[in-house]
TrEMBL record:
<protein>
    <submittedName>
        <fullName>Methyltransferase domain-containing protein</fullName>
    </submittedName>
</protein>
<keyword id="KW-0808">Transferase</keyword>
<dbReference type="Pfam" id="PF13649">
    <property type="entry name" value="Methyltransf_25"/>
</dbReference>
<dbReference type="GO" id="GO:0030798">
    <property type="term" value="F:trans-aconitate 2-methyltransferase activity"/>
</dbReference>
<dbReference type="InterPro" id="IPR041698">
    <property type="entry name" value="Methyltransf_25"/>
</dbReference>
<keyword id="KW-0489">Methyltransferase</keyword>
<feature type="domain" description="Methyltransferase">
    <location>
        <begin position="34"/>
        <end position="123"/>
    </location>
</feature>
<dbReference type="InterPro" id="IPR023149">
    <property type="entry name" value="Trans_acon_MeTrfase_C"/>
</dbReference>
<dbReference type="InterPro" id="IPR029063">
    <property type="entry name" value="SAM-dependent_MTases_sf"/>
</dbReference>
<dbReference type="GO" id="GO:0032259">
    <property type="term" value="P:methylation"/>
</dbReference>
Amino acid sequence: MVWDPQQYLKFSGHRLRPAVDLLMRIPDVGPRTVADLGAGAGNVTKLIKERWPSAAVTGVEGSAEMVAAGRKAAPDVEWSHEDLGHWRPAKQYDVVYSNAALHWLPNHAALFPSVMEKVAPGGMLAVQMPRNFLAPSHVLIGETALNGPWRSKVEHLVTPPPVEGPAFYHDLLAPLAQNIDIWETEYLQVLEGENPVKEWTKGTWLTRYLDVLQGDEKAAFEDAYGMRVAKAYPKNAAGQTLFPFRRLFIVAQRKG
């Protein structure tokens, strides 16, 4: 995927809120080292550094465009441009934080224990992932993909939801953790503008499909999805679009 930081940050306030909610739920273990996995444009990494100014914070990000934006937003953070799926640090971290990133990686049954092993004993793993994949915003992307002349090019992207339920992650992490806190929050996001849910997904999940297509076909796919999603999320009397969005949170302390 080619990430567009400007598109992603169109709804930076709404995207930032769960990241801050997660950050504030991490006990202050006095970390000396912190890794931010999927650090994106650095707006959250900057807050991590502000919370623990004496810690050495590393932002790990697979998109060159996002790393460039992150270095501007958080210049006092060490930036590592690498694919999260191949993250193999030579050391453990006191805090491993990841906001809206790990759902892009497959095989969570192996991934989460592997990431937990990168947390130092007594340290914290903190993860937030969207779990909105059965909502119209996301279901209609797959419906559009399977009902158009572009089907053969994009149908391989129509896959089951990438994030499991809370109990799945509890059972994975329990053998490695002394404390686990897992919860879900559904945010009722009040969006402004023309077809804002389309614009929201265009900054994340829809990008996977648009990257495969070119020219008129790409525009036609976006228009077809836009028509479907606008009907699913009509404006209210005040001209606003209400967009419920569920997210899964995990804060787990590694066994000492």
